[in-house]
Request: fold
Amino acid sequence: MAINPKKTDMEKQTPEKRVKNFDEVALGYKEAEALTEAARCLQCKKPLCVDGCPVSINIPAFIKLVAEKKYNEAAKKIKETNSLPAVCGRVCPQEEQCEIKCIVGKKNEPVGIGRLERFVADAERESGNIEKNVVKLPEKKIAKVVIAGSGPAGLTCAGDLAMLGYDVTIYESLHATGGVLRYGIPQFRLPKEILDIEVDYLRKLGVKIIVNVLIGKTITIPELFKQGYAAVFVGAGAGLPSFLGVPGENLSGVYSANEYLTRINLMQAYKFPETDTPVRIGNKVAVVGAGNVAMDAARCSLRLGAKEVYIVYRRSEEEMPARKEEIENAVEEGVKLHILTAPVEVLGDEKTGRVKGMKVIKCKLGEPDASGRRRPVIIPGSEYVMELDTVVSAIGQSPNPLIPQSMPELKIGKWGNIVTDETTGETSVPGVYAGGDIATGAATVIAAMGAGKRAAKSMDAYIKAKLKIN
Amino acid sequence: MFKIIKREDVSDTVKLIEVEAPLIASSAKSGQFVVLRLKEGGERVPLTIADKDKKKGTVTIVFQVVGKSTIELASFKVGDSIKDLLGPLGKATDFAGAKNIVCVAGGVGIAEIYPEVKELHEEGKIVTTIIGARNKALLFFEEELKAVSDAMHVTTDDGSYGRKGFVSDVLKELLEKDKTIDLVVAVGPVIMMKVVSDLTKNYNVRTIVSLNPIMLDATGMCGACRVTVGGKTLFGCVDGPSFDGHQVDFGELIKRLNQFKDEEKNSAEIYKLKCRECRENGH
Reply:
């Protein structure tokens, strides 16, 4: 039987409907669709997809279990190496990780691994099996460890260390868990109920999560060592937004994407005044940048009633760093792309200091730069003014400086990142490990999870060597 | 949850609470602040730590009743708990090298400057304190500040207490008379800090102001609190809250503080209306 060349489609809310709500856009596979898709997997003897997965999920094995309708077994198989499958099935850029390596993908569309992962995680949850599937861990723990930050890196590291037999405490500075999964990624891409359940799974593994503690301020890493913790993992995230570097960037109505999304997602400004935190959107919004965060900000703006939403990006659509799927979703919903366009100045009202527009300039593409993408070159005399109420700067962020500031012996790189050994997560301080955006600068959820995983493995080895276990 | 163990009316519009928060109490330094959230759905409100007690494991917060959350917090009683409290945040104020210091405060800044005056006094510095308010009813902490100051001046705009006039009037006289003053610390309404900074610039005396921009996470993540200092964009929460008053763009700060004025007013009005209904229904 010839293989179906196309990935099985996943149903989505129609653009007209979804742009009016914050409900999830992609609705997930139904059983029949999952079975059709699982049948496309070749069950390779040497599966390349697994190499592409930062958390090394045994992909062919779980897909085989799906094909055999053993969904709960499939969930257990994924959770052997990934404690956040419902999150990953939704937000991982599978097209650049596992699916790009898929053998089926050489001639046809690759197997929809991400969609199947989501299906399995959702099936486990909907059948009420999560609780039953919690692994029973020994009461006696090897040692105490601390995780700073409950984002994707921290949660993964915590889950793995708990499974390895450690007494794990996560400290989170915000009032809620999840880091960027909560404050950054909107409800319509990752429902917070799903995140809550996956975080809760870690609690069931015995992980203690304490919110409202900022490591480096409330308590420092040296103090934690004094309290008897054997090792610390820092997953504090890329918490320092970059601004446009043009005049007018501090006008009222210019937000960093972090502020904009935090107001909307974490503080639920879309329910204001029922909730206490406002956000002002206005009719016309420009989001500068073209990564996933930019798409999220643009799509939130539409849902909050903006009439016109623009992505302003200095290169072309081809260079956009966002997932193709997310760009498509945004365009379907009505986001307009102003490509090859760079901001020159944000214009404001003298008296109120509020945004009224943005002067931009057209660009063309020149030679490739250090990143390998073609460099935007300004076209002199091509300036024009966009009329706007809100400007969102989604051009990236650098690592949060608070922990490095509190610990001078921790070696810092050029961009303020904590310097680590990429394979082990070791920092310049023995017993201190780091991973995710704090070490690499802004990247993806799954890259951070991979780093958390590698760090957990080396923390285990470090502690056991120190305690002379094995 | 963070339990309130003491609550006082400092004045009609200024309230004091002492809250159980041992971790914050053990690491807080003067000039730092906390962010609190009263309940689910509540906003994150930055407030200066006015005092701490390491032994008891408590911090004292003095706040002005201005918006929805502070109106609501004013209704909290001893034994009630605040849902979220994060701190200490921001950098401690750096008084490096100063010997003869004038501390100037107005409004709720009178409470906020107290730990700084106390610290300077304990370090053996010469501290002159000037506090001011619109009228007598709005003044507080005079005795507390007097106890840790070498000299004390009080002004009211209407002359109902102390000297009639502004804190800057007294400061100007002091700067004229005493050329050894090497630092001025100003905490209070933005306009007061601006006037003080403009004045001290003429005398070339270093001036530290404590800014109160709008904040969200208050850990450097969002940039809502950005301020222009010496032509550079800095973050109030991680680079401040204390800055060189001669370098701060106060005009921009004032505009940014008004960013959500309509929404804030609306939210407070709705809350007040609800409270009235609650009372009328006997709750």
User: Anything to note?
Assistant: Chain B touches chain A at residues 23-24, 27, 37, 41-44, 68-69, 83-89, 216-217, 219-224, 226-228, 233, 235, 238, 252, 255-256, 258-260, 263-264, 266-267, 270 (CB under 8 Å). The longest helix of chain B spans residues 261-280. DSSP finds nine helices and 16 strands in chain B.
